Hints:
By secondary structure, the protein is of the alpha+beta class. The protein has six domains: 4-103, Rossmann fold (3-Layer(aba) Sandwich); 132-190, ATP-grasp fold, A domain (Dna Ligase, domain 1), CATH 3.30.1490; 194-324, ATP-grasp fold, B domain (D-amino Acid Aminotransferase, Chain A, domain 1, 2-Layer Sandwich); 327-442, 2-Layer Sandwich (D-amino Acid Aminotransferase, Chain A, domain 1), CATH 3.30.470; 454-569, no CATH class; 582-665, CATH 2.40.50.100. It is globular, with a radius of gyration of 27 Å.
Amino acid sequence: MITRLLVANRAEIAARVFRTCRRLGIETVAVHSDADASLPYVAEADHAVRLPGTSAADTYLRADLIIDAARHAGADAVHPGYGFLSENADFARAVLAAGLTWVGPAPESIEQMGAKVRAKQVVRAAGVPVLEAPELPTAADLPLLVKASAGGGGRGMRVVRDLDDLPAELERARAEAAAAFGDGTVFVEPYVERGRHVEVQVVGDTHGRVAVLGTRDCSVQRRHQKIVEEAPAPGLSAEVERGVLEAARRAAEAIGYVGAGTVELLLDPGTGRFWFLEMNTRLQVEHPVTEEVLGLDLVQLQLEVAEGRALGAGATDTVGGEPWADGHAIEVRLYAEDPARGHQPQSGVLTAFEVPAEPGIRVEAGFAAGDAVTTHYDAMLAKVVAHAPTREQAARLLAGVLRRARLHGVVTNREQLVAVLTSPAFLAGELSTGFLGDHLAEPADPACVAVDPGAPVAAALALAERATAARTVQRGIPVAWRNVVSAPQRTTFRRGEEEVAVAWWGGRTGYTVEAAEPGAALTVVAAGPTRVTLERAGVRTSYDVAVSGPRDHEVVEVDAPTGHVRLERVPRLPDPAEAGGAAARGALLAPMPGSVVSVSAEVGATVRAGQPLLVLEAMKMQHTVSAPTDGVLTVLDVEPGAQVAAGAVLAVVEARTDTPDEGEHR
């Protein structure tokens, strides 16, 4: 019997495991880096141990520190979560050698499935179809996919559509795989255009039984990383469903699998053919959708298997072909990232983080309001899951909850997730790994999207109410009252590169707002420091307003049924010191905090627009910084290994007005 469990992981997955442990009466131990010390999961644990350091490499990837923490805290078992050391056979062996219970598969199973090249050999022998890579690919084999043998999550993955690009993409994939997994081994396989990513949940016990627990679809991805997952996988024929379930069983039985795991397959929707991709020998991020439709607790099953118990009747095998799912569940991954800028990770303080707690909604979050989001780890803030009788109802419920969520302080992918869930193509089940490119327009910069005209008005009036509440004298005088009515008060906000001005008057009878354009008159129904209600053409809309920052430089977050708007107040008297502070023309700024991996140009070199100049790494993903225009590289302020802050000037390209001949580019 496990009595005290240490989770060798962080944030939402640690909190998820702790929840089951509390229900079962098992004490919990959290481990945390310095950067994570204030996150909710640390306080939720019965005991917590600090891992000295900040980055993953010197904390959560240090098996010795984690085992020492388990001993120090009196834990008798270790759960690896997912990511970090969860699929590390040496870590599993070290846990067992320390006399602790390992909540996971045997180290030998991790090794067999941990390297994708070896895993393909194992499942091929078990009769599971696999994608075969040509030894000497030709143009007829294109497109190709370069993949990291030791990893997942899109890291070390590259699509190649031109054979001339293959050597460079192999090198980039090796570098990213080595940084993410400590193993730069990569391989090449055919790339199936618009395939579906279908997976099967399995659980095996030490008594020889493997339960196959239904399908999931995880096809909606960005950068080869999942963002929307659902169960059951929609639109599968009975024949295809039986085929993928049986393939998963064969793969798990081939290695005598014990514990919870996932067999991932690539499905060609046109032909119904499918191929083995990999087996994740751990709990998956998307496991809640399976739990919701089956009424199971997969963490509880993991713990029971680790204690040596046989899988009971609750772990119902779904291979039989009969309807097995209770309704439909959809999960989205809410990330601190900017889809309009290549899904660049974002950092900052979450000034508000509230997701409505509606029936049928499950939220597993790693952060709370006031927490700092750093670039040391994965950018996922939370998983939000909806369970409803039908797929359409689940999608509508989830989209509505996301719209009403209050997410302030960092840019997130919330709008993109809502766009997916409400897309006619998604609702029709037209799923593929190319879904975003095929069915959604390029994400627009939120600062460039047309704004509800009521949002800046609500922001201006809330600021006025805040100023009134802060008065220490003459409290009885109405807001902005004047003895002789003259020009209106004017509050100006910056939204991206655009300035929005609100003209308004205050008096004994309340506020009057100058219409921004003909026919757009707004009547102020009620105004307060945190909520403003406006009426337009007989329709009332309420706006929730949150303000942060110093006076006259406030950041105002406005939430309404029409969406979220972030506005920065422009001071009436600009600071002269800021006048010359704009970045130099042609300057390349760091899009996020990170480290410089490589530099591929020198000062004085003539460069072309789009030419890679350097590579930044943040959250173990690499981002290429390219020349914005043809010109000369006049400044290069970084070198490999340098740590840079977001917005730092990395380089400057001085644009050319003439057209250089080819010799100048060599």
